[in-house]
Amino acid sequence: MSREIKFRAWDKQNKNMEEVDLLGSNVLHIKNSEWENIEDFEVMQFTGLEDKNGAEIYEGDIIQELKVNWEVVFYKGAWRLGRNVKGDIQYKSLDRYAYRCEIIGDIYRNKELLEEK
């Protein structure tokens, strides 16, 4: 079984999401641009899964599943949905629920979507 390995990166200085062509140990190559210092970016990996609308799910995405917002994280060797409930982190398998989830944002542009109400 194989899946596509790809990344995106949050540009800390310019505050925008970039598609990554190549990733090195200390550098990354932004699509249609040039090599950049990896320290200036937050790199996120594609999970290999899509939401219910066919959008690719990446680490750091905020997704809604049955009106509950979750952050996509890699935890204990698997892609998971994680959320903080009164100081306690809950996790569940992304593989199991991706088909009924919808991406509603990401942790860099929409952190407020994860705040407890």
How would you describe this structure to a colleague?
By secondary structure, the protein is mainly beta. 3% of the residues lie in helices and 56% in strands. The protein contains 1 helix and 11 strands; from the N terminus they run E-E-E-E-E-E-E-E-E-E-H-E. The radius of gyration is 15 Å and the shape is globular. The chain starts with 6 loop residues before the first strand and ends in an 11-residue tail after the last strand. The model has no long low-confidence stretch (mean pLDDT 92).
Provide the descriptors you would attach to this structure in a database record.
117 residues; mainly beta; 1 helix; globular
Quick gist of this model?
This protein is mainly β and 117 residues long.
Number of DSSP E strands: 11
Give helix % range.
Answer: under 10%
**Order of helix and strand elements from N to C terminus:** EEEEEEEEEEHE
Indicate the overall shape: globular
Regions with pLDDT < 50 over 5+ consecutive residues?
none
Distance, first to last CA: 41 Å
Biggest sheet: strands side by side, in what order?
4-3-2-1-5-6
Largest sheet: 6 strands, antiparallel
Per DSSP, the total helix count is 1
Radius of gyration: 15 Å
Specify the structural class.
mainly beta
Provide mean pLDDT, rounded.
92
Strand content: over 45%
